[in-house]
Amino acid sequence: MNILVINCGSSSLKYHLYNMITEKLLFIGLIERIGLDNPLHRFGKNDYDYKEEVEISDHTSAIKLALQKLTSSGIGPLKSLSDINAVAHRVVHGGERFQSATVVTDDNIEEMEKYNHFAPLHNPIMIHGIKECRRLLPNVQHVAVFDTAFHHSIPAEARLFGIPYKYYEEGVKRYGFHGNSHQYVAMKAAEYLQRSFRRFNVITCHLGNGSSVCAVSDGRSLDTSMGMSPMDGLIMGTRCGQLDPFIIFHLMREFGHSAEEIEEMLNKKSGLLGISGISSDFRDVHIAAEKGNNRAQIAIMALEYQLKKYIGAYCAVLGRVDAIVFTGGIGQNSVELRWRALQGLERLG
What is the pTM of this model? Predict the structure, then answer.
């Protein structure tokens, strides 16, 4: 059985093809800068062995290119698209409605779209990708997998906010994100350490352009840094992270910003980009910091501080911590950030 996995980003498309009988990766691809200057397609059988500049103006064209590459002679692992047995799609926000992977139907696409305003950078383009894949692969089963699903185990005391309870009952609560990543790396850590996942306490740190921390206890999400939307928690590439709500009113009253302008600012112009004034890419900010740029240094120090604070808090929540795991582009590659985030936590065991 061959499973195609699709992850549509705001300007990218990641796709992997797996054989589920052998549990092996057959092909991997990444199309970047969709709709921007100089789009790039990287692909290969085990890694990004090849790259080509392409003309891609939208995600529909990107999906078509990915499917063509999977069946191209000499490179693609498939003779025909009919060799694809199912397509799995990442969806960021599934709200209360979707608590596990779900077979895609017209009706539940409508339900998914109700959560678009909670994740405006993610859900709309991901659902667009689902629709296009269903159109291009009409005879294949499509399954949606939700970032929020893993976090449905979070208890009410960690899920609710300090506002009137009626809003909690109406769905204003912590949903959490990156659930697929947090669950997977927690399971792999338990496997690596030869521990039972159901008797394993771990803090997982997913650090990339979007970042979150999760406390996992006995295989279940106990708490996580992101809240009702992917804007909450750590400082991220362009997102603000945790914020005093008064700041929003202040920006409206004193600076004359509208709600729409503030939403745009907090989602797309804040975080590392907003603080450093250089880039949303951690690598660019880190290079500037090493060259002595003060704002870049402050941006990285703020991220390190917040990360350490969440790890320390989750040590207290879990009581016993068997491992701390880092993943994502920043978590995997920045040795210095990992070291600084863990400095001073030795006394916790």
Answer: 0.89
